[in-house]
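Ops channel
N.P.: pipeline sanity check, posting one input/output pair.
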């Protein structure tokens, strides 16, 4: 459905505790194994690099192993092609971090780079720094042909006079972000439930992509389409 194509940018965003990081992890597994992603068919890639900057290493490792055990035979030869890194100090708008990303793209040569979450990669969360990191990611795409998936947070909820939440499709940060991404996926759901709904805005899809309802199995950290 042209949700993610070579050399494009995809955003997965939503409120706190909406399983964004688990979706990011699962996305990498789907890209490597060719397993369907949220019901959509996948053309597998050779290598994925996933950098996460929010979850400590021990619980992150526990999450990854739980999913890997569930996938079982589907993980044959996939684990060595899934490069994962945890760094709580990474800031993309610094020379050191930019050089590190270039080195990763040169040596590992991933087809897809997943960065989770965006705001943690900023030294200061302001529009100027968002713009700087956008330019850095565009350079990575131009130089290495990599596709980039960013995990990000939603804007602060807005409510009408009756107290009902107003549904929007705007990620946190400057409004220009919406035009920069090729695909945006918003994750919504009550944190008291394991059900989530994914809403799509895509530039390249030839058909309208309808919302997809999914449910997380906490025993496997995998999603089933409802």
């Amino acid at each position: 459905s042209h949700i993610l194509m070579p050399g494009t940018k995809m955003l997965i965003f939503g409120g706190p505790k909406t399983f964004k990081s688990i979706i990011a992890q699962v996305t990498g597994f789907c890209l490597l194994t060719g397993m369907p992603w949220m019901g959509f068919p996948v053309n597998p890639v050779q290598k994925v690099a996933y950098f996460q900057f929010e979850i400590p290493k021990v619980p992150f490792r526990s999450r990854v192993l739980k999913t890997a055990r569930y996938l079982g035979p589907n993980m044959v030869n996939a684990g060595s092609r899934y490069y994962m890194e945890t760094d709580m100090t990474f800031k993309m708008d610094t020379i050191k971090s930019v050089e590190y990303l270039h080195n990763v793209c040169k040596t590992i040569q991933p087809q897809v780079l997943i960065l989770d979450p965006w705001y943690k990669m900023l030294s200061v969360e302001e529009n100027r720094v968002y713009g700087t990191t956008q330019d850095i990611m565009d350079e990575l795409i131009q130089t290495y042909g990599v596709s980039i998936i960013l995990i990000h947070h939603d804007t602060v909820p807005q409510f009408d006079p009756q107290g009902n939440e107003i549904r929007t499709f705007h990620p946190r940060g400057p409004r220009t972000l919406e035009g920069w991404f090729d695909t945006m996926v918003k994750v919504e759901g009550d944190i008291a439930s394991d059900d989530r709904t994914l809403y799509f805005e895509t530039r390249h899809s030839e058909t309208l992509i309808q919302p997809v309802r999914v449910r997380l199995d906490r025993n496997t950290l995998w999603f089933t389409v409802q």
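N.P.: looks fine end to end. The first helix runs from residue 20 to 33.
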